[in-house]
């Protein structure tokens, strides 16, 4: 279950970092915080995929997301 939480957290951070990257580049600033967020997201996803039991399939992603959302709602 922990690998699913890490995967969803990493994907969530990556999705939230995209507007920050775009905003920094359009304003002419360097995207320092966004780069740190992207790096953190990459590390979380890699750790999650390396600890995944068996082989990760793309079809496992929706199950992982719904599992984590169900855990949060509960």
Largest sheet properties: none
Separation, N- and C-terminal Cα atoms: 15 Å
Q: What is the molecular shape?
A: elongated
Counting H and I runs of at least 4 residues, what is the number of helices?
A: 3
Helix content: over 70%
The total count of strands amounts to 0
Task: Name the poorly predicted regions.
Answer: none
Rg (CA only):
14 Å
Average of pLDDT: 92
Share of β-strand residues: under 5%
Could you state the order of secondary-structure elements as H and E? HHH
Summing up helix and strand content along with how strands pair, one would put the structural category as mainly alpha
Count of discrete structural domains:
1
Structure report:
- Helices cover 80% and strands 0% of the residues.
- By secondary structure, it is mostly helical.
- It has one domain.
- The longest helix has 26 residues, at 2-27.
What tags apply to this protein structure?
elongated, single chain, mainly alpha, 74 residues, 3 helices, 80% helix
Topology:
Elements: H1 2-27, H2 32-50, H3 60-73
Helix pairs in contact: 1-2, 1-3
Structure described in brief:
The chain is mainly alpha-helical. It has helices at 2-27, 32-50, 60-73.
